[in-house]
Design a protein that fits this description.
Layout (H helix, E strand, L loop, with lengths): L1 H19 L5 H29 L15 H15 L10 H8 L9 H13 L7 H4 L17 H16 L12 H15 L12 H11 L5 E2 L2 E3 L6 H9 L2 E2 L2 E4 L3 H13 L7 E4 L14 E6 L32 H11 E12 L7 H13 L3 E6 L12 E7 L7 E6 L5 E3 L2 E3 L2 H13 L7 E5 H6 L21 H29 L6
Parallel strand pairs: 1-3, 2-4, 2-6, 4-5, 6-7, 8-10
Antiparallel strand pairs: 7-9, 8-9, 10-13, 11-12
Helix pairs in contact: 1-7, 1-8, 2-7, 2-8, 2-11, 4-7, 9-10, 9-14
Length: 520
């Protein structure tokens, strides 16, 4: 039933998004629809929690307004909710109440002002508490004054009321604590918006199939993790995917430079019922201003922006993340800077997996120097996995995954996997199927060699190749052409020549009967 319910909810949410956004770009409307779903989620959580507290008193949350002990009850519920949920909403501020007021009597009533206050109240309720940073400015991208919502205040209000009323009709089934249907549906919506958002989509969303590969790689042999970290966490999909691969993750850490995406990530965490005390997401530039510098993580995953610019300031030569290598990644290609950053943050018993463009495997200069240091001096590189082209939104370039460990079981070799030809084409995207993902993971886990798919290269072999990791150097995917039978082809040509003569004779006979010249 959960799968059916999830599919139905996904379809309902996408229909609302498609129907109501009108001429607004999907990228713009995303912030509104996801923000309002999050507001409804918080309201439902608040209502359920308050009703649980009030049950011994025979009251519901809605009934305490006007109650003789309203002030005392409200104060107690607020204190408990701030600690348990991380936020507080009054009965009048609940989503269902706003939707009811906006559509009372079947009319479009003006609620924009009230809605703006409610969203501010949610954030203000956390001030001075442990959850303040996790809820601060969460709704900053919901600009209710934006002209994109409509030309007049009435037009804006009409659209917002429509969205609220449509969402209010959906039962998110939050009382079912074993279900994560809403969180998954929210993730589905993020993916749907990403697929239609053009070249910037990759900044906030990693396709689920790729997330699955990365998550499984860093959890091989483990059923629980003390911590997982993503230095370019986007909407948080990768972090949450890792949690699906193990029984328990004690804490989630991430850093995201884009403020809008940072808000999306925190919402996504909360929507997946990750308690605010269990995640620490920071809004900063990871390479320039790392926020978890002194921490070490058991699992690290990342899909950083490919070949991004960074300062590559000479001052970083004294930074512990980069100093030992003797060289910095080029300012026009930060790929290896992210690798170095992640290696610095990796615990001794940890595994990291990062998606990068193929250039990191063979480019020379400073990148070649860093690559050699990681292999020759540190021996951290465990595997290189080639992925199909065109599996990321907004770019068709082929990519690879580097898997690194500080304490490797197979320290005398590096595993190369060429999975670039194993995919299914769906519309304009290439997609890794379940069997493709399983093949990658089983090959990595069992460290198996398979002709034209995988190869275990001794470190001496990599050294012979001057630490060039280009996959075709190690996995031969060349398909030999079938031998040509010249005698058979000669006979075939003779038969065709004879057939042509017969055809010409037939045509000549028809032309004679008709009294016309032959065409040859």
């Amino acid at each position: 039933m959960a799968a059916e319910q999830k599919q139905k909810l996904e379809q309902q949410l996408w229909n609302i998004a498609n129907t109501l956004r009108g001429k607004m770009d999907a990228d713009d409307f995303r912030d509104y629809i996801l923000g309002f779903i999050f507001y409804k989620y918080l309201s439902t959580k608040m209502d359920l929690y308050a009703n649980t507290i009030l049950k011994p008193d025979g009251l519901t949350f809605q009934q305490i307004e006007g109650h003789p002990e309203e002030a005392a009850l409200m104060h107690e519920i607020k204190q408990l909710a701030i600690d348990k949920l991380g936020f507080f909403l009054e009965p009048a501020d609940l989503f269902s109440e706003l939707a009811r007021r906006g559509n009372a009597g079947g009319k479009n009533n003006f609620i924009l002002g009230d809605l703006a206050k409610v969203l501010t109240h949610i954030e203000q309720s956390t001030m001075g508490s442990e959850s303040e940073e996790d809820f601060g400015n969460l709704f900053s991208d919901l600009d209710l004054t934006s002209h994109k919502l409509g030309k007049s205040e009435t037009d804006k209000n009409e659209l917002i009321v429509k969205v609220l009323v449509h969402l209010d009709e959906i039962d998110f089934d939050l009382e079912n604590t074993d279900s994560d249907v809403l969180g998954d549906a929210y993730e589905y919506l993020i993916g749907q918006f990403a697929s239609g958002a053009g070249k910037k989509a990759g900044e906030f969303y990693t396709p689920q199939q790729v997330s699955s590969v990365l998550a499984q790689l860093v959890t091989v042999g483990k059923d629980q993790l003390k911590s997982v970290y993503d230095p370019t966490c986007g909407s948080g999909s990768l972090l949450l995917r890792v949690a699906k691969e193990v029984k328990d993750v004690s804490a989630f850490y991430g850093q995201e430079m884009n403020p809008t995406t940072y808000n999306l990530c925190r919402m996504n965490m909360i929507m997946h019922d990750v308690h605010y005390k269990r995640f620490d997401i920071k809004n900063e530039d990871t390479l320039e201003r790392p926020q978890h510098f002194d921490m070490r993580f058991e699992a690290i995953v990342a899909n950083p922006p490919f070949s991004a610019n960074w300062s590559a300031s000479p001052l970083f030569m004294s930074d512990d993340r980069f100093s030992a290598y003797g060289k910095l990644a080029p300012s026009s290609k930060a790929d290896f800077a992210f690798v170095q950053h992640m290696v610095h943050q990796l615990a001794d018993n940890g595994t990291m997996a990062i998606v990068l463009p193929h250039g990191v495997l063979f480019r020379g200069g400073a990148e070649g120097h860093i690559r050699e240091y990681l292999i020759k001096e540190k021996n951290y590189l465990d595997a290189v996995i080639g992925l199909p082209a065109n599996i990321f939104y907004g770019t068709s370039i082929p990519t690879c995954i580097l898997v690194l460990k500080k304490k490797r079981t197979d320290a005398k070799s590096i595993l190369f996997i060429d999975a670039s030809q194993h995919f299914e084409k769906v519309k304009t995207q290439n997609v890794l199927r379940t069997e493709d993902i399983d093949k990658i993971i089983s090959t990595y886990e069992n460290r198996t060699e398979e002709e034209k798919y995988s190869h275990i290269a001794a470190l001496s072999e990599v050294e012979t190749n001057d630490y060039n990791l280009n996959i075709p150097r190690y996995v031969d995917t060349f398909e030999e052409e079938d031998a040509i039978d010249l005698k058979a082809i000669t006979n075939e040509l003779r038969e065709l020549a004879d057939l042509a003569k017969t055809t010409d004779a037939t045509i000549e006979g028809f032309c004679t009967e008709l009294g016309i010249e032959t065409p040859f």
